[in-house]
Amino acid sequence: MNIKKAIAWLFTGYFIFILLLLILIIVNSSSDILDSHTPLPDMSQYEQVDEKKAAFFSLLRPLVQKTNAQILQDRQKLKSIQNTYKKKTRLSSREHRQLAQLRSKYEVDASLPLEEQLSLLDLRIHIVPESLTLAQAAIESAWGNSRFAKEANNLFGQWCFSEGCGLVPRKRPKGAIHEVQKFESLEEAVDGYMNNINTHQAYRPLRLARKKLLEKNMDLSGTELANYLGKYSERGEHYIEEVKIMIKRNDLEPIDSEGGPK
Questions:
Q1: Cα 169 from chain centre
Q2: Is residue 101 within 8 Å of residue 117, measured between CB atoms?
Q3: What is 130-249's CATH topology?
Q4: pLDDT by residue (tens digit) across 149-159?
Q5: If residue 24 lies in a helix (H) or strand (E), which one and from where to where?
Q6: Where are the domains positioned within the chain?
Q7: pTM (2 d.p.)
Q8: Angle at 138 (CA atoms; ends 135, 144), nearest 5 degrees
């Protein structure tokens, strides 16, 4: 091999090495981004109540907005599938895959007739008002100070029912098997809460009320939808009132000139 060829091979090898190094850096960076999540700060650091509240809402708002944005993307996919079905044309393979993903995420039985599947998904796939989400998070997590918030990222008091799925409540009744679900991140907790509201049978009345508001071109009011949270807590009507008060006292949704939610 002459000198020119040796130099050419040397530069080629150097170029390949640099290229592989850049690919490795990009892959690792992407992995870090995917694995990143918002940590729950020590809320006891805030001595002033107003400061603590502002910090809590500022932490959660972008997470709530992110999850709602994803739900709206899912709804766009559903609407496209519905339009295809209304035209009495066959769903494409891509639409079938999307439908399968939506069924899985929003817990709809694949054995149901297609029209019924689409109807259920239409009822389930929509946003949960930011005001309602923030109010419930503040109540259920004691402004991020509860044991379950600190140790399990559980801001909404959600239960699970398989051994080891979460934390065992210290005052769990004898014979009970529920645990307070553990989440890997606050993002996952928000996703889980909204999925619970959108899929659990206990909140079907809330979803129906939401559908009626949308059909009337009215804004989704957390105060209004709070009326359908009686089964969220053993406190029933008292819990509903607590959520409404939380929304009002913290100005979590706009109020019109007549005193009602816009």
A1: 24
A2: no
A3: Lysozyme (1.10.530)
A4: 999 999 999 98
A5: helix 3-35
A6: 47-124, 130-249
A7: 0.81
A8: 155
